[in-house]
Write a structure and sequence with these properties.
By secondary structure, this protein is an alpha+beta fold. The protein is 29% helix and 28% strand.
């Protein structure tokens, strides 16, 4: 029965059949009909190949005249079909960004991987289904038919009469001087198909300063660049990449693929910045007072660093301070330096990236924050008073928005300390940690801190508090709150679990960062870029960087409870996971579950029982099958529910699982299993309990599981 076991374990390969049968099973009827018409069916069975298979819907996107022409010209049809086939079995795991593969048509196709949205393209066509295994190769399903490019990017420009001006400029300039700067500002040194572009993305160009262009992407307006140029025609493939043609600022057409790159068509010419931030200030007469102050404070050098944002007060803004305050600034160089540095953010912040109630950390000595207000009616205002009057003045080293209403400062004479208090705002007016919590309304936390006798301790050093809101405490069962109020030792331990030594700013956070708490145990930071969520032990941070004189406060939406051990400890301690525990021990995987930064989707005893005695017997008899299935429940990174999203593909230690997330149905996996208890923190990751055992894709049609 060895042959039979091989059939059942290797599954997808055996039950998928040969390449033509796999295509048939997946419903690619148009492709199969065209393959047969071109006389290629036998050829696809004569060796090992990978097919990038357009769906029926992909073929329906082609103009009917193109389809009719291909059906009349079987040589051209065969060439296009061969352009979708490469020799050998290429798995998803073999793909790398910019990988080029030789096709049976004799030309190459280019793979691109865009991690931010988990998209993989081949010649700009999105791969929608990976790794359909056949006995003689592999199929990946794509959403668009690939058309062989007619040459490299220069060939495409030469052959497009609507790009004749661009061609003449390139030829006449020899890409030299100022014209070279402008033309190189339209070229990105990597392949960017439209499927990989996203809103607020920065792309670095080829020009001398490697200036960036800023993308805007929306379903209604398409792609636009630097707020003006629109892509009018995208994804023109070339043999060496993609071409971008520019006649404005919005991208109106995407992904014109070339053999050596990619073109996106835009409707406005982009102009490179005229200099760095200091150059912009020097060249603007309305910023002459700012310039003189910068020179007096010796800060001109600092403003020539890279990736800066300057909020530049106008002359009128300085004059609103009054002569007395200006005199104080002249007499106190350190105070002047502090105030000027308070207008500089050490990273590039265009207005499209600003959001309401955002905190931006500045360059001043204390790294104080400024608070932004952003609205469609009032624009951008800073610390509740200053308004941005002109935004997004690009420089080679950052951006320079300036504003006309600066902080009004009224001080008694000879009270420079009061001037500092008034101008530097957030840090000083926040007070100490307890006062910051009080000002932010965290009254339940303050009351519990006092009850546990920790108030004085929080004033005796520099700390960061991850502060649950009143609503967070109200989520706890009343019995838990009552027990904590009776047991001040347990209460103090939980509160200390929310406190770490030193000031930890949002900018200091990194994914999987672990911080030692005053309770002696560690908490874990996770960052989920797709929805801009940052969690600490799974609790979402809703507000960052509330600055106190002796530390920092970040506000949480959930109280953190110290974990009871690592993931193995949690499984051992839960009687409803006893079957999982026995399977883990049988497969020798207990050690793997003690690694750091992992997520386990843990099936209950009832979930295993749903498999039936026949399947459970097979698992007992086949250790490798058991190991594969158990590893399919483990992701090698920490995934709290706040970071999960609908239609997410999550890689496990074995294969990938597909998530469905909704407000009504919660989290489901592979369309069947539901998370019944989420976010059980462990010292080395997180556990989610589920109601079905997950089956890897390659076993789903196996008679091991009663499926043929």
């Amino acid at each position: 029965m060895i042959a039979f076991l091989a059939l059942t374990v290797l599954v997808q390969s055996v039950f998928g059949g040969n390449l033509v049968e796999v295509l048939q099973n997946d419903g690619e009827t148009t492709l199969i009909a065209l393959v047969k018409q071109a006389g290629l069916a036998d050829a696809l069975l004569s060796g090992e190949y990978t097919i990038f298979a357009p769906t029926n819907a992909a073929f329906s996107k082609l103009p009917q005249s193109t389809l009719d022409g291909l059906q009349r010209d079987t040589t051209a049809l065969a060439n296009i079909l061969k352009y979708h086939v490469v020799k050998g079995s290429i798995h998803k795991a073999d793909a790398s960004n910019e990988l080029q593969l030789e096709t049976l048509a004799g030309t190459k196709i280019r793979i691109n991987i865009y991690p931010h949205n988990n998209v993989v393209t081949v010649e700009g066509s999105k791969i929608t289904t990976f790794d359909l295994t056949a006995t003689n190769g592999m199929v990946h399903v794509i959403d668009t038919v690939m058309m062989p490019p007619t040459g490299n990017i220069v060939d495409l420009v030469v052959g497009n009469s609507d790009l004749s001006t661009l061609l003449s400029k390139v030829q006449s300039a020899g890409l030299a001087g100022a014209l070279q700067e402008i033309l190189e500002y339209h070229v990105v040194p990597h392949t960017e198909y439209s499927a990989g572009l996203y809103n607020r993305e920065y792309l670095r160009t080829l020009d001398t300063h490697h200036d960036v262009i800023r993308l805007g992407v929306s379903s209604t307006n398409g792609v636009y660049i630097n707020r003006r140029a629109h892509v009018t025609q995208a994804d023109i493939s070339a043999t060496n990449g993609v071409v971008v043609t520019v006649e404005g600022s919005k991208i109106t057409t995407f992904d014109l693929t070339a053999t050596n790159g990619m073109v996106h068509v835009i409707d406005t010419v982009m102009m490179p910045p005229t200099g760095n931030i200091v150059d912009l200030v020097v060249g603007n007469s309305d910023l002459s007072i700012l310039l003189s102050k910068v020179q007096s404070a010796g800060l001109a050098g600092a403003l020539q660093g890279d990736a800066l944002t300057v909020f530049a007060p106008t002359n009128a803004a300085f004059n609103r301070l009054g002569s007395h305050v200006l005199d104080n600034l002249r007499r106190d160089p350190q105070l002047l330096k502090e105030i000027l540095e308070y207008h500089v953010v050490p990273h590039t912040e265009y207005s499209a990236g600003l959001y309401n109630r955002e905190y931006l950390r500045t360059l001043d000595t204390h790294h104080d924050v400024i608070r932004l207000g952003v609205s469609s009616t009032n624009g951008v205002y800073i610390n509740r008073r200053a308004h941005v009057t002109q935004a997004d003045i690009s420089a080679t080293n950052g951006v320079n928005p300036y504003f006309s209403l600066w902080l009004t400062v009224r001080v008694p004479s000879n009270m420079l300390a009061l001037l500092v208090l008034t101008v530097l705002v957030q840090c000083v007016l926040g007070g100490n940690l307890v006062e910051v919590l009080q000002n932010d309304g965290e009254t339940t936390l303050i009351a519990l801190v006092k009850q546990a006798g920790l108030a004085d301790a929080l004033l005796s050093g520099e700390y960061t508090i991850f502060a649950p809101t009143n609503a967070a405490f109200s989520k706890l069962p009343q019995s838990t709150l009552d027990a904590l109020q009776r047991d001040t030792t347990a209460l103090a331990n939980i509160l200390k679990y929310h406190v770490v030594k030193g000031s930890i700013h949002k900018a200091d956070a990194s994914n999987e960062l672990k911080l030692e708490t005053l309770a002696g145990t560690k908490i874990r930071i996770n960052i989920y870029p797709h929805n801009n969520v940052v969690t600490v032990d799974g609790s979402k941070i809703t507000r960052f960087d509330l600055t106190a004189t002796n530390g920092m406060v970040h506000v949480l939406d959930t109280v953190m409870i110290p974990p009871g051990g690592n993931i193995v400890d949690l499984v051992v301690g839960n009687s409803d996971l006893s079957t999982l525990l026995s399977k883990v021990q049988s497969a020798g995987l207990a050690g793997a579950l003690q690694g750091d930064g992992i997520t386990v989707f843990a099936p209950t005893n009832a979930a295993f029982n749903k498999l039936g005695s026949h399947v459970l017997d097979n698992l007992r008899r086949d250790p490798q099958l058991l190991k594969d299935i158990l590893e399919y429940h483990v992701a090698p990174h920490t995934e709290y529910s706040a970071g999960l999203y609908n239609k997410e593909t999550l890689n496990t230690l074995d294969d990938f699982i597909r998530l469905g997330v909704s407000s009504t149905n919660g989290v489901r996996l592979n369309h069947q299993a539901h998370v019944t208890q989420a976010d059980i923190s462990a010292t080395n990751g997180v556990v989610h309990i589920i109601d079905h055992v997950l089956i890897p894709h390659r076993y789903r049609h196996s008679d091991i599981f009663g499926r043929k």
